[in-house]
Amino acid sequence: MNAFEDIGGVVVQQFAYVGGLTDQFWSGLRALPRVLPFIGRRGRWQTSVRQMAAIGVAALPMLGIMAICAGMILALQGGAELRRFGALRYVIDLVAVGFTRELGPLLTAIVVSGRSGSAFSAEIGTMMVTNEIDALRVMALDPIEFVLAPKYLAAIIMVPCLTVMCNVFGITAGAGFMYLSTKMTFGIYLRYVFDSIVLRDVLSGLVKSLAFATIIVQVGCMEGFKVQGGPEAVGRATTSAVVKSTFLVILADLFFTAIFYLAGWQ
Amino acid sequence: MAEPIIAVRDLSVAYEGHQVLDRVSLDIQPNEIMVLLGGSGSGKSTLLRHIIGLEQPDSGTVLVRGVDINRCSPKDLKDVRRSMGVAFQEAALFSSLSTEENVGLPLRELTSLAEPVIEIMIYMKLAVVGLAEARKLMPFELSGGMKKRAAVARAIALDPEILVFDEPSAGLDPIVSAELDHLILSLKQAFNMTILVVTHEITSAFRIADRMAMLCNGSLIAVEDKESFKASTDPHIRQFLDRIPDDITETAAVQEHLRELAGMTRGKS
Question: What pTM was computed for the model?
Answer without folding.
Answer: 0.86
